[in-house]
Design a protein that fits this description.
By secondary structure, the protein is an alpha/beta fold. 23% of the residues lie in helices and 29% in strands. The strands form three sheets. It has a seven-stranded mixed sheet, with helices on both faces. It is globular, with a radius of gyration of 15 Å.
Length: 179
């Protein structure tokens, strides 16, 4: 049983360190960069990630599929560069990969931090997303912000803070308006 973490990036030097450091328990960390113009790739390499390049696109889904194809792990964890994994969640994911042979993919809650505060209301929690899966069971469409296509048996993790991906979403009102 091996686990690969896949992180897609574009000009994420401010975020990438925290994301990679939270995944040092994984067997492999792959950063798929879309030709950043900052030090994202340099920082990723310094932190031991394997870096692959993908042409720049307006959305991440095709690059995500490409990055997953480069992963060697039996299990894949998808992480955005502005996210991190708490230790309690990594322990749970390792347990699932080792012991729950019938499970093919896992929906993980996300703890969205907006303007420095956890948003527990207004559909921001538990924000379940397919983020952990056996290689070959999940594929993203070439359309922006669509859930992936899944095959097999799924599991929804409990909506508990300790089992959630921490998503450092909007840091400022300007960033919120821009997106």
């Amino acid at each position: 049983m091996s686990i690969s973490v896949v992180i897609n990036t574009l000009n994420d030097e401010k975020n990438i360190k925290k994301a990679i450091e939270s995944c040092q328990w994984a067997d492999e960390i792959i950063v798929c960069d879309m030709h950043s113009e900052d030090d994202t790739v340099k920082f990723a390499k310094e932190l031991g990630a394997k870096v692959v390049m993908h042409k720049r696109m307006d959305f991440v889904e095709p690059a995500r599929n490409f990055a997953v194809s480069k992963a060697s792990g039996e299990w894949i964890l998808i992480l955005d560069p502005d996210e991190e994994i708490p230790e309690t969640l990594n322990e749970k994911l390792i347990q699932i990969a080792k012991k729950m042979k019938q499970i093919d993919y896992v929906k993980i809650p996300r703890k969205n931090i907006i303007f420095g505060k956890w948003m527990e209301a207004s559909m921001w929690w538990p924000d379940l997303n397919v983020r952990f899966f056996k290689k070959g069971t999940v594929n993203w469409n070439n359309k922006i912000h669509r859930p992936p296509q899944v095959n097999g048996e799924g599991l929804d993790l409990e909506a508990k803070e300790e089992l959630a991906i921490i998503h450092h979403n909007y840091q400022s009102i300007g960033q919120f308006i821009e997106r």
